[in-house]
Write a structure and sequence with these properties.
This protein has about 210 residues and is α/β, with parallel strands linked by helices. The protein has 7 helices and 5 strands, in the order ββαβαααβαβαα. Strands 1-5-2-4-3 form a 5-stranded mixed beta sheet. Helix 6 packs across helix 7.
Length: about 210
């Protein structure tokens, strides 16, 4: 079941039969950075007439889609104090408090908000991101419709490099380029892979004990 570094595996699916306006309108999609989460989410959103949003809107508001910005704006009406933190992408500004911990906290609140909003409005929403395994406890995913993309660490890494260094026109060269590649490989596709594999194991164990129905 674990993510492998070279060989891609088929996605894991949990509770997809529950994804509906009357049962659980929120579908979760997760996987490594560069694994294809956004592509899949957009395809499903078009096919099933669902709203699509990425957790990344909490950091990259101005690069997000209009639909993502609109949903986040509804969230910010409840928590206007974090608007400035989103603008600076949660970079550390206070020695007394860790903005990383704050980001974890608001990722959880944002998830809860979207779940409640989708149920209240009976509107299908697709939420994608790495935050399900990097910022939240696996128990929050139990009972939810979820897709875990198991593209290989190597393929995901190449996709991320292609996206970041070509699409964003980054101009890092020489030794700095090599250092950045090594840093990205460790952060995004070694460290992330370990976290995602733990998430998959925990989720499979918790899923066996989940008897919830709509």
């Amino acid at each position: 079941m674990k993510i492998r570094f070279i060989k891609p595996l088929k996605p894991l699916y949990y509770n997809l039969e529950k994804w509906s306006e009357t049962c659980i309108p929120l579908l979760l999609i997760t996987g490594l950075s560069g694994s294809g989460k956004t592509t899949l989410a957009k395809e499903l959103a078009t096919k099933y007439d669902a709203d699509f949003i990425s957790f990344d809107v909490l950091k990259f508001y101005f690069k997000a889609s209009i639909q993502s910005q609109q949903l986040l704006n509804l969230f910010l009406k409840q928590y206007p104090q974090i608007a400035k933190l989103i603008e600076i992408q949660w970079s550390k500004t206070d020695k007394k408090y860790s903005n990383d911990i704050l980001f974890n906290y608001y990722c959880n609140l944002f998830y809860d908000f979207l779940l409640e909003y989708s149920k209240k409005n009976k509107k299908k929403i697709i939420l994608e991101g790495i935050q399900f395994f990097s910022r939240m406890h696996p128990s929050k995913s139990i009972g939810m419709p979820i897709v875990i993309i198991r593209n290989s660490g190597f393929c995901s890494f190449l996709n991320k490099v292609n996206r970041d260094y070509k699409t964003n026109h980054l101009t890092v060269k020489g030794l700095s380029f090599i250092k950045q590649i090594i840093k990205d490989l460790y952060i995004y596709h070694i460290k992330q892979k370990k976290l995602l594999n733990k998430y998959i194991i925990y989720l499979s164990i918790l899923y066996k004990h989940d008897k919830g129905t709509c």
